[in-house]
Amino acid sequence: xxxxxxxxxxETREQLLSAAAAxxxxxxxxxxxxxxxxxxxxxxxxxxxxxxxxxxxLLLEALRSHGGAAAAQLxxxxxxxxxxxxxxxxxxxxxxRGGQKATLLLEAVTAGRRDPRVGKVLTxxxxxxxxxxxxLLRQAQERGEVDRGLSPEALSRLITLIAVGALVAxxxxxxxxxxxxxxxxxxxxxxxxxxxxxxR
Length: 200
Description:
Shape: elongated
CATH topology of the largest domain: Tetracycline Repressor, domain 2
CATH architecture of the largest domain: Orthogonal Bundle
CATH class of the largest domain: Mainly Alpha
Strand content: under 5%
Oligomer: single chain
Structural class: mainly alpha
Order of helices and strands: HHHHHHHHHH
């Protein structure tokens, strides 16, 4: 990428991916033009095409860099408390998330239906995060924090569905639900995964 003086290659890359994520979120995959992304990033289209062969490649990299998902969010929120406590906190915050990341996810899903490469990367990204979360849940079962009768894979899928559904609701700007009522519901869902006293 054409570097400007005093700016590192990593800073230039981050600026490009931020500009790409914002443009895809605002204009949609079909409406976003590489020249527009280049202008927003302070680069030339030639500099972008030197690193990304197609607009789909740029979308994939923006998605990897800015896509976000429940498992990654969970791991970034610290290690205080059990896995279920972290899930409850992350789940309670879902209605407040969205914005650009939510719209970018919807654009990636739409683009993935037309471009198999985009769909493949999106599927693989979600699958990796589900596997990671299932592994954390399995460890929590071994520590007696999660009901051993539950499938870690099924629980991980439920968490993914709730997280992605919340992003879709945010991208569509559905009327928000009461935050206290949402938190109460999430806490009840999470509590259902805790072992009973007899099972501990």
